[in-house]
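INTERNAL AUDIT FORM
Audit reference: QA-55
Scope: verify that the stored structure record matches its stored sequence.
Auditor: D.O.
Record contents follow.
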Amino acid sequence: QRQGTRASLAPLPPEITEQVTVLRDEFARNRPAAAKLPRVSVAAKGGGTDSATSKRKALEAARALSEAISQLNEEALETALLKASDAGIMNSTVEEAEDTLRRLVSLRELKVA
């Protein structure tokens, strides 16, 4: 502790204590339920930093890729691969999605033939 500075807590004066009590009671009675409070995402607020935006795009693309691969949906795979290329992703998941898409196209063409 520095010399000449003393930090100590003192009780509030009675008139301020009354005001604090009134405000606390009013808040307790009138506060909205947490579920009714509006939620605003960072993206809706304006996105944040460039790195946060690119990270969010990469996460969304990865999620879309894994969902499309698990559904074996040709259209969803094409859309997810476009998202991944927009986000600049090139990894094993993208390769797996491309392989799955090729396999689905081949199977569709075999069924037609």
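Auditor finding: record pair retrieved intact. The CA atoms of residues 74 and 101 lie 6 Å apart.
Action required: none
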